[in-house]
Please model this.
Amino acid sequence: QLPLVESGGGSVTAGGSLRLSCAVSGLRYSDNCVAWFRQALGKEREGIASIWTGGDSTYYAASMKGRVTISQDKAKNLVYLQIMSLKPEDTAMYFCAAHRGVATEKYCSGGYWAEADFGYWGQGTQVTVSS
Model:
């Protein structure tokens, strides 16, 4: 079983919503930082949101802030990304990633991280939004 497995992607029309899931296994879940990224074809991967698993504090990048909610089910080691009001420009492969080690709340929920800080990545789930 892969440490991180995303699911919940699919094809939707503009204005629709999706809830993506990231199942975490074989990794330290508590006091960690789990983030969602996306990468559109031909573009760089960008961070969307992160959640500090020691609590529920979150960070949202400006690109999708207001349209996404990151949350978790600690008992199930699941991290969710709810996306509302999907736009065609949201079409991308969405990845979840976990930090290489123990992360602080400030570091994670304050957005003081970079892509290279995450040592574990899922294979991604495709989101395609049509107009």
